[in-house]
């Protein structure tokens, strides 16, 4: 009975040795990965399905000779990569939405509307009262020269004030526009730079993540072999102990006889 169990466990080792594995990660607006068997051997020609969070198929493709694949996505969300082999093996790998955040963001700044090409100052118009026939017939005496000079000075002062206000308003609009554009550009550059750094770091650590996934798969296979050896050792120890007890009983019976 024990021997049959050991044989069955040993037969399951090759099945585990060819267990299908898959690894995937986001690269920009694409999801790339690799299908392989335990031990690192590439799984070429494997059916790869890309599913969204609702289980709807987004893409279907096959792995190349090195077991690699690449699919494009059009929105941020949780995805699931499913690898299937012809002999019924299946492996999955999740892609979190956080790996795609920022890829589809529009970082192009929208500048504020520019003011009109020329800002005209408020027009200062001096309207003269329409003279009625009665006033023409009874014209008042001409104003004194000093009164005319005072009126002209007031008009010039008002025109200068209007011009000063117009220039100040125009400069204020220009400064506000420049500040808005600078802030928009700084924000856009900061977002683009941050996203570029995240993508660069993700590309750099991608081989490490892939190697770690393969190492974990190999470690589980080694654990299986270690467990088989441990069981075989315990079984051998139990058989030896049982055999020794039988020999002791046999020697004792012979001595008593």
UniProtKB/TrEMBL annotation:
InterPro entries given in the database record: Ig-like_fold
Transmembrane segments: 224-242
Signal sequence bounds: 1-17
Biased composition (Low complexity): 112-128
Disordered as annotated region, ranges: 112-149
Keyword entries, A-Z: Membrane, Signal, Transmembrane, Transmembrane helix
Coiled coil feature spans: none
Name of the featured protein: Carboxypeptidase regulatory-like domain-containing protein
